[in-house]
Design goal:
Elements lengths: L9 E4 L2 E4 L39 H15 L10 H8 L1 H35 L1 H9 L4 H35 L10 H27 L3 H5 L3
Antiparallel strand pairs: 1-2
Helix pairs in contact: 3-6, 5-6
């Protein structure tokens, strides 16, 4: 408003004169989608229509007491109330729904991917059973055999991660741009996601690879 020191300054709001007695920090009066707008808080008992009440007793008992007092003060008006947490829930219901759907689809995608990796690793292990048996007879350790069988899938997961990161970053930026105040997407989020992806993939592929590496080589080489 152009005041260096607004305290005790006189001003007029909608034809009503008053004096500035304090300044508060910015806070939201509407959805987080909207920017914080200028706000004047004034004390006007005659034009009060809504009261925010915080109760520290049983909710039902509190509502009954508030209704009794409201009917005593304004018997001509019906008693109406809303819970603030439900108001916030309704305001961001679409985000909550989107979050739930994202979690569900992520779990389903991970499950299907793990099934695919497990099937491919099992097929690869069966195809290379004789090779694994020969290497084991010649002194290859279980660790080396597991690494050998898992190497190709590690490369595939790395390629998938490189493709997924820019797509995920773009989509997340588009969603966050709807909010005036939002977090910034840092590289740490994608690093953690990548590590979790490789961990899940390694456990899935490593299980079958370990099973193939510990198998008795006599059984795979008996036909040779």
């Amino acid at each position: 408003m152009g005041f260096d020191n607004p305290l005790e300054k006189n001003m007029s709001v909608w034809g009503m004169k008053g004096k500035i007695i304090g300044v508060v920090k910015n806070f939201h009066m509407s959805s987080m989608y909207d920017p914080i707008e200028p706000l004047i808080i004034r004390y006007d008992v005659r034009n009060t229509s809504v009261a925010f009440i915080r109760t520290h007793i049983n909710t039902q008992e509190g509502l009954q007491a508030i209704e009794k007092l409201t009917r005593k003060l304004s018997p001509a008006f019906p008693f109406q109330y809303e819970f603030l947490d439900r108001e916030y829930e309704q305001a961001y219901k679409s985000e909550m729904t989107l979050s739930s759907l994202a979690n569900i689809f992520a779990l389903v995608s991970i499950f299907i991917s793990c099934l695919g990796l497990l099937g491919l690793s099992a097929f690869s292990a069966d195809q290379r059973a004789k090779e694994v048996g020969i290497r084991k007879v010649h002194g290859a350790t279980i660790g080396k055999l597991v690494v050998m069988l898992s190497r190709d899938y590690t490369r595939l997961m790395l390629i998938a991660f490189i493709i997924a990161v820019p797509i995920a970053y773009y989509l997340m930026r588009q969603w966050l741009n709807d909010f005036t105040f939002r977090i910034e997407l840092g590289g740490g989020i994608f690093i953690v996601a990548g590590l979790l992806t490789f961990l899940i993939g390694a456990l899935t592929v490593g299980y079958k690879s370990y099973y193939a590496a510990t198998a008795n080589p006599v059984k795979s080489l008996k036909d040779e």
